[in-house]
Write a structure and sequence with these properties.
By secondary structure, this protein is of the alpha/beta class. The chain contains 16 helices and 10 strands. Strands 1, 2, 3, 4 and 5 form a 5-stranded mixed sheet that branches. A 5-stranded mixed sheet has the order 8-7-6-9-10, with helices on both faces. Strand 7 (176-183) and strand 8 form a beta hairpin.
Length: 424
């Protein structure tokens, strides 16, 4: 026998503990309602008659010492005295657990909290509570459905979209993508839908409430044409005509960094005939080339100049580095007019006839997304919180070792990332 702990808290539920014992490492608690209760029939109002008790076995949340807890609830069975009443017999109800449930409400809240914090998978929680996976998910899915229900997210002014891989490609299937719609101001996941094409985004928007969609003023995306074309086609229809599209600054700067990296690799091959190796000037400065100019100290500047002098005979890498800094300068000002001027200057630099082919490619991209880049400066919209939500989505995927069922994946995501910070 083990001592009865006040932490069990069954008294607050109107139940009394009749015994506690330890069986095979589990704490088994026997509870029942007190004798002498007066219960009345809900149909006719007559006082009900007791038909004895029936034991129900439940799984409770682990105790303070981490040991699993099994509850043996000796439920009372009642029947109506009137032969004319159709109520028949029924078992007593309690806030301990719902009818035909294996888990107590306390165990359900504990498991939901663990899942929401991505501190375990459904399988690991099922093992801790000693139930089957399907038994555990059947109850947790109800809580996840409530998290995904209507009215969970109010009006959203800035809406961000970002995709991630749900399942990698194999010999028998293509890669499966999902897209998260995120409140760019709060970081809450509004919803998740399968796919990343324009048709997928248009279908998702068409399923949302018209008033909710009309409240969106800015849509922040990566430089992905599928998302942009979908938003443009929805303007004036589902979306308001003045809805602005803003491209995420981080991804624009990354495109400039990629131009520097591609040019460095090409120049490396042209001058040495092989890929970068230890001791090669440009290979040794590959990280310095991607570092912001304001972060370089005197030693860093000296190393960068020496690497370019030794490994960049046509100054193409140096030109790409200068273009990258000009692109970064666009986002260093909050003045839309000044940012537009700096963007035009960066495009002109990349379009120069003598510029490297990587810069010509970058110039085409910047020109194509010029309006969206300027919108990002004017509205201050970015996908930073969307990327943070995407990281949480990947944590959910890792915790379960991957998903095959999109519906289950969506519910897990909304449970973990579809709430306000600190919300339970």
């Amino acid at each position: 026998m083990v001592e009865v702990s006040s932490d069990f808290g069954f008294g607050a539920l109107g139940l009394e503990v009749t015994g506690v014992e330890e069986v095979l490492g589990e704490v088994v608690v026997r509870v029942q309602s007190p004798d002498g209760q007066r219960v009345f029939c809900a149909g006719c109002g007559l006082r009900a008659r007791s038909k004895g008790r029936r034991e129900v076995v439940l799984r409770d949340a682990p105790g303070g010492d981490g040991r699993p807890v099994r509850v043996r609830w000796n439920k009372r069975v009642w029947e109506c005295r009137s032969p004319l009443c159709g109520s028949g017999s029924w078992t007593e109800r309690s806030e301990l657990a719902g009818p035909r449930r294996v888990l107590t409400f306390r165990a359900e809240r504990w498991a939901v909290g663990r899942l929401a914090a991505v501190e375990g998978s459904v399988a690991s929680l099922a093992r801790q509570l000693g139930v089957a996976w399907h038994t555990m998910w059947a109850q947790l899915a109800l809580a996840a459905e409530r998290a995904a229900g209507g009215g969970r997210v109010g009006p959203v002014v800035k809406l961000g979209f970002d995709e991630t891989v749900m399942a990698s490609a194999s010999r028998r299937r293509r890669r499966r993508f999902i897209t998260a719609a995120v409140d760019a101001d709060t970081g809450r996941v509004v919803d998740v839908f399968e796919g990343r094409d324009a048709a997928d985004l248009r279908e998702w928007v068409s399923q949302q409430g018209r008033e909710w969609v009309r409240a969106v003023e800015v849509v922040c995306i990566d430089p992905h044409e599928g998302y942009r074309s979908a938003i443009k086609s929805l303007r004036g229809d589902r979306l308001r005509a003045g809805t602005q599209i803003a491209v995420d600054p981080f991804h624009v700067v990354r495109l400039a960094n990629q131009a520097v990296d591609r040019c460095r690799r090409r120049t490396q091959n042209d001058t040495t005939g092989h890929r970068g190796r230890k001791g090669d000037p440009l290979y040794g400065a590959r990280k310095l080339l991607l570092m912001g100019a304001e972060r370089l100290d005197d030693t860093g500047w000296d190393r960068l100049r020496q690497a370019l002098d030794a490994g960049d005979p046509y100054d193409e890498v140096a030109d790409c580095w200068e273009a990258k800094e000009r692109v970064r300068a666009v986002f260093k000002t909050g003045d839309p007019d000044q940012a537009a001027t700096r963007l035009d200057d960066a495009i002109s630099w990349c379009k120069a006839p003598e510029a490297a082919p990587e810069l010509h490619r970058l110039a085409r991209t910047l020109t194509k997304w010029r309006t969206e880049i300027n919108n990002s400066i004017a509205t201050g919209a970015h996908n930073g919180r969307t990327e943070a939500a995407n990281a949480k989505i990947k944590d959910v995927k890792r915790s379960a070792r991957g998903f095959r069922n999109f519906a289950n994946y969506r519910l897990r995501i909304l449970l973990a990332a579809g709430r306000k910070p600190g919300q339970t």
